[in-house]
Write a structure and sequence with these properties.
alpha+beta, globular, 4-stranded antiparallel sheet, 3 helices
Length: about 90
């Protein structure tokens, strides 16, 4: 199973917004207009992604496909309804 090394950046402008890019290409394939709206990217982490890896708020298959096709994956913050559902799910496990 192949793995892709990805760098993940958080947006200083919008809580919960993350940008996933190939570590080797870094931000070179991200459109300038997106970077302006995103703000100065803040390094969150570097991860090895593969099809069998789970991510908290994104489908790893979609992330890898988007990075291959357009050079990045933009994870938007959850909607208030999604956030409440996640909290309910976490609390039900307590």
């Amino acid at each position: 199973m192949s793995k892709q090394l990805c760098t993940i950046y958080r947006s200083p402008k919008k809580e919960g917004m993350y940008l996933y890019v190939d570590k080797q290409d870094d931000l070179s394939r991200v459109p300038e207009s997106l970077l302006q709206r995103f703000g100065k990217p803040e390094l969150a982490m570097t991860l090895a992604l593969s099809a069998d890896r789970k991510l908290a708020r994104a489908d790893v298959g979609k992330v890898l496909e988007s990075i291959a096709d357009q050079g990045y994956y933009l994870q938007m913050p959850p909607s208030p309804e999604q956030y409440l559902q996640e909290m309910r799910n976490k609390n039900s496990k307590l």
